[in-house]
Amino acid sequence: MSVAVASAPDPAAASPGVAAAQAVASAAAASFAALEASLDYLSSSEIEQVRQAYRFADQAHLGQLRKNGDPYITHPIAVAQICTQWKLDAQALMAALLHDVLEDCGVTKAELTERFGPAVAELVDGLTKLDKLEFDSREQGQAESFRKMLLAMARDVRVMLIKLADRLHNMRTMGDMPRQKWARISRETLEIYAPIAHRLGLNNLYRELQDLAFRHLHPWRYQALSKALARSRARRKDLIARVQGEVEAAFAGSGLQVRIAGREKTLYSIYHKMDTKHLSFAQVTDIYGFRIIVPQVLDCYTALGVLHQLYKPMPGKFRDYIAIPKINGYQSLHTTLIGPFGTPIEFQLRTPGMDVVAESGIAAHWLYKTGDAAQASAQALNAQWLQSLLDIQQETKDSGEFWDHVRIDLFPDSVYVFTPKSKILALPRGATAVDFAYAIHSDIGHRAIGATINGEQVPLRTELRNGDVVEITTSPHAHPNPAWLGFVRTGRARSKIRHYLKTLAQEESRALGERLLRQALRAEGYAHLPGDDAADQAVWDKLLRFTGTRSRDELLTDIGQGRRIAGMVGKKLAALLAESGQRPDALLISQERFGAPSEDRPSQGVVVLDGSEGGSIVYASCCRPIPGDRIVGYLGKGEGLAVHTEDCPVVRRLLQRDRERFLEVEWAEEPMRPFESTILVTVSNGKGVLARVAAAIAAAEADITHLHMGDEAAQRTTELRFTVAVRDRVHLAQVLRQLRRTPSVLRAQRVRPPRAPDGN
């Protein structure tokens, strides 16, 4: 992100000696020598390519200064130096040096392609687009920015690594920025960039970004904690030295070659723990710890035994992240021991390869190239996550939905579960059996009908716990339930379910739209829709231009979803057919407009309902129509066809406003499923009365789908409101008769919406 200004600070403000020293330091920082010392892992030809990029960037930024008065080129050099710590390749370093030339210097992408090749130009172009992103809120604009950033990362993770290096240097030099920008940039770093660094396993970067953001977001709290930590460090200096000496002696006696390093919690992690768990500084007991580096994986477990012989372990404080890595590839053994004077001390045990992955995550791909299993595991997990971003993008075009899908994956707090074949899966905490099914394969998720956890059948919404063995039962006729969206936790499951439901709804809406357009066209004297031959295709093309739709399917879907009136489209289509030389059938017109449906000639215009329809047809909850009721259909804008009872007051209001949107509908002779109806049962209070009422409904072969008893205290009489599933009006009448015969039932009736007064 650019932080250039037009003029340098006043040199008179400093003494000549200080000014001279600053000038020398500034010149050194702006020279290629400041970077060249870090390029020893590149070949001489690659170093020369980086040098050419430096010269180009230096010339492009000539005359531009940073807020502190340094030449602007010092910023790209610093970003490239951070990238060299991860041993990024020459193309990435060239892009780091050039990352601001498109935005600030008027250089074109074509020019960069000609000078440095398409790969470098694409990296710089991706970085330039990311530089323009700001995350001020959780609104649509922010979600769109977030989507663009993650997709750029998914296509080439080097873009995100360079962007994170750019953000790190800007945070390190935040003191030179106007103070009013500190809060926004720091909050953005904590909420967006630090979690991405953590998800990619860049733990050193993650911790530094958090501390720098904390320092500028809450400077007073930062200073207070910093002083408290310094005092604590001085008090515990002897304790830490004693523990280190005893640990070194124990390992020397075991003959195990180890490297021991101290570890101290960052200020932000201490603050976050105090804030979330409401602790004082003195109550945070795991500020200090040790990292034990051993040659081989087996040595980690041997070293664990040595430590447990030296100090007693705290129950419940052992974690094996080697057998079951964290979701970002991190591997270590964690154990907390009771040291001298009863002080808890955490130890982390890992191999050198695990240590590199723990600190550098996905950057270990460049940094550590020995084929270590820890690195391969981290690469596979991060590559899988990056690919999942592209998969979700393919199915989710809405930016808000994309943010909703991936934000859980950015803040992983995982549970680890097993398949029946003992494969381990890491899922976010709170994940359900449905999340597990989609993690296995999208087809397993789509066809899931039940789950077995640890040998017991459970509902699909059951939350998973560490160590669960999960098996999913599927059926070829099953499909996702919209209610699943209320409890799934993973972005993959959520996006797959939504994509399936949207596709299904569009198919159903298209079929309904084709049916309605055919009906409208029959009223104009044409028995069939135009076909696919050349002449008919010309008619379709003219109709699509008239409606502004891109395809025939889109037009039919719009009609089925109520975005377009079938009658209006039918009239235009009839006119186009007449222009092409096709004449309407006068007999068909008279039949459709003036003839009554009969058994010999059923009406093609009536929409027949049997309950097997999907999301394109909705049965209104205001009046809950059931077979046998006189019904009408209302084609709402973008809502599909809503079915109401003929006497519903909502229908009365809609008739006055949108009469042309009403369609003729009727029930099929044999509906495919039961329909819900609401009944009100007034009972005398007494022991077992609810059980008797429920038994009466069951005896009438109806299912109770919902019960509401009200919130008021029990009186002598109580009203019970049931939603029951019945086959038709006759079945509902049987249910009501059965209830009225039940002791303690005073009254039983169907609930209907209040009638609107005549004339309204």
Binned strand content: 15-25%
Mean pLDDT: 79
Cα Rg: 35 Å
Q: Segments where pLDDT lies below 50 for 5+ residues?
A: 1-14, 135-141, 367-371, 596-604
Question: What descriptors fit this protein?
Answer:
760 residues; alpha+beta; Hypothetical protein af1432; 4-stranded mixed beta sheet; 22 strands; extended; HD/PDEase_dom; EC 3.1.7.2; GTP diphosphokinase activity; hydrolase; Guanosine-3',5'-bis(Diphosphate) 3'-pyrophosphohydrolase
Describe the structure.
The protein has 760 residues and is of the alpha+beta class. It has six domains: 4-221, Hypothetical protein af1432 (Orthogonal Bundle); 223-350, Beta Polymerase, domain 2, CATH 3.30.460; 413-481, Beta-grasp domain (Ubiquitin-like (UB roll), Roll); 490-585, no CATH class; 606-673, no CATH class; 675-750, Alpha-Beta Plaits, CATH 3.30.70. It is built from 30 helices and 22 strands. The protein has a five-stranded mixed sheet with strand order 3-4-7-6-5. A four-stranded mixed sheet has the order 14-16-15-17, covered by helices on one side. Helix 29 packs antiparallel against helix 30. The protein is extended, with a radius of gyration of 35 Å. The chain starts with a strand and ends in a 10-residue tail after the last strand. Mean pLDDT is 79; it is low at 1-14, 135-141, 367-371 and 596-604. One of its GO terms (biological process) is response to starvation.
